[in-house]
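Hey team,

Filing this mostly as a record. A colleague (T.K.) asked me to run one chain through the structure pipeline before their review meeting, and I want the input and output archived in the tracker in case anyone asks later how it was produced. No errors, nothing strange. Just documentation.

Input sequence:
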Amino acid sequence: MLDARERKLMRLASGLPDVLSERTYNLLLGACVLYGFVVNALIVWGCGDLFVRINIWAFVVVYLVCCIVGVLITRSPDPVMSFIGYNFVVLPIGALTSVCLPGYGVDNILAAIVVTGVVALAMMVLASIYPRVFARLGGALFVSLILAVVAELAALLMGYPADIFNWLFVVIYSLYLGYDWYRAQSYPKTVDNAVDSALDIYLDIILLFMKLLRILGNDKD
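Output structure:
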């Protein structure tokens, strides 16, 4: 059975509405990803104290609801709706980031940003050079991610240190970034697909950044 994304791609492939050039498509994709990080930076800079005061359980519930709603909205074939859904994910992640970052030093944050940028660029280049390799990674990465999450939770529940899993997640998210870049280049070059692909790549990068920050930084909490 085809999932929603696959059905959407079949519809787009049949009509190819608003087809863009490869350069325009990638510029739009990159602009959407950059927009997400700019919004996150503005939230961290201007609203950090606000979200710290919110009840933790209310914060978690609103965060999860917004992200789920955002992902569902991005399934729309309308690029405007997809961009609205993208914001439903970007805004709560910005709020979460504003709560987490104060636990780390500025030097560690900057180092994590630089390393994340280098890794992201390297994975995109590799995925462009070896698309067939990354095309085979989807199922293996999904299973690896689920197993890593379960193993980390089990280690935490049994009282064992789970820091070693941060390195495993860095590898998984890095490969996911390359895989999602490969998928972005294989989709029809439409505005809606650029926005949808931007969400996938944005999430890969932000998750990679947070794991690198935990490795490089000293969490005060």
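Quick notes for T.K.: The mean pLDDT is 86. The radius of gyration is 18 Å.
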